[in-house]
Design a protein that fits this description.
- With 174 residues, the chain is mainly α.
- Among the domains are: 66 residues, no CATH class; 51 residues, no CATH class.
- It has six helices and four strands, in the order ααααααββββ.
- The strands form two sheets. It has a two-stranded antiparallel sheet. The chain has a two-stranded antiparallel sheet with strand order 3-4.
- The protein is elongated.
């Protein structure tokens, strides 16, 4: 026959098991020899190097500035890293000014798509950017948008031009 358990014995057993489980979870880092701590640091270092390579030198400079301000980086390490990444950042920015896509290539795919869309967006000299990518005339003021002359096909690059430079045909009504 089964003996009846005293009142609250089951709750006491479950509570004791939970307390022992929690205690072992809390104390396990103290008892652990630290062998898996080394394996956790290595992937983090790899991720940091990969991030610097993907983000570029400009982002690396921002990161070392932040690390210095928060006290994570000594002054000697800061000066060494700043010297190393400053030259690379200047080269990246100069390449971007020359029309290279060095900076755009380091952006994530969404930001790169936004940059490409902005580069293709037309702009009216008076009204600003136009939403219509194939607009010939500004939808607000009627000025001719940069493109080709409808009469001779010559390239008209100057926003707000009233006449074609090649044939003299009027481009927009004033």
């Amino acid at each position: 026959m089964l003996a009846a358990l005293p009142d609250g014995a089951l709750a006491l057993a479950v509570g004791t098991a939970l307390a022992l489980g929690g205690l072992s979870l809390v104390l396990s880092p103290l008892v652990n020899d630290g062998s898996d701590a080394a394996t956790k640091v290595k992937p983090q270092a790899k991720n940091m190097q990969a991030t610097e390579a993907e983000d570029g030198a400009v982002a690396a400079l921002r990161e070392i500035e932040f690390d210095r301000e928060t006290g994570k980086l000594s002054d000697s390490d800061y000066s060494e890293l700043k010297t190393r990444y400053t030259q690379a950042a200047l080269e990246e920015l100069r390449a971007a000014d020359r029309g290279g896509n060095t900076v755009t290539a380091t952006l994530d795919p969404v930001e790169a798509a936004i940059e490409r869309a902005r580069a293709q967006q037309q702009s009216c000299i008076d009204c600003g950017p136009r939403l219509e990518p194939d607009a010939v005339y500004c939808s607000d003021c009627g000025r001719y948008m940069p493109g080709n002359c409808g009469h001779c096909g010559a390239k008209v690059a100057e926003p707000g031009s009233a006449f074609c430079a090649k044939c003299g045909e009027g481009l927009a009504e004033e």
